[in-house]
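[Meeting: bench + compute handoff]

Bench side (C.D.) handed over the final construct sequence. Compute side (W.E.) agreed to return the predicted structure before the next meeting so the bench team could plan truncations. Sequence as handed over:
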Amino acid sequence: MADAGPGAARLFRKLHFVFHGRNEKLAYASGLEGVKVVPVQALTAILYSLTGIAGAALFFSSRYAEAFLLTTVVSQIWRAYSETLRADYRGEGKITAYQMMALAAVPAAGCIAYAMPTRDTLAPNVAMGAAIFWNPLALVFLQAIWVAMFLLTGVSETTGSVLSFHVTPAFRNRTRDAGSSSTNGLTPG
């Protein structure tokens, strides 16, 4: 939190995160396990939730360009700024690739919003939109997109996991004590 500046340190003195576990990025990339850090994830969740609600209100008022512009600009400016609050390793430079992409997205969003049609637009119809999800073809298509995204982006080059199962000692003792005349249908082994 000290790197975030004195104002942030005061503000987040009581409202902070502390990460534990060697699989946390703060631990393996920066050696900050157990250290108080600015709660960037919580701030992001709050800001994005409020922005999403405001964007939805604009969308349902048929103000599509404003909804797009608001949600994109807020999310990308926050993305660029929140990188400065993070305590983990972000690369060698002062400006990260994520910050450059986020800042480039803002003028791009402005151009897209400017090009969006503003006349003769249909009002949103929630019932019609929800009806699409009852179409099996739409559901299969969305699932196919999900599988493709998972296969393309779901493999980490940094972390891994192992799934294992075992019989607990309590179960072993219970089945050993019951012998072969088990009344619960479990066969000792």
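W.E. noted at the follow-up: The radius of gyration is 25 Å. C.D. will use this when planning the next construct.
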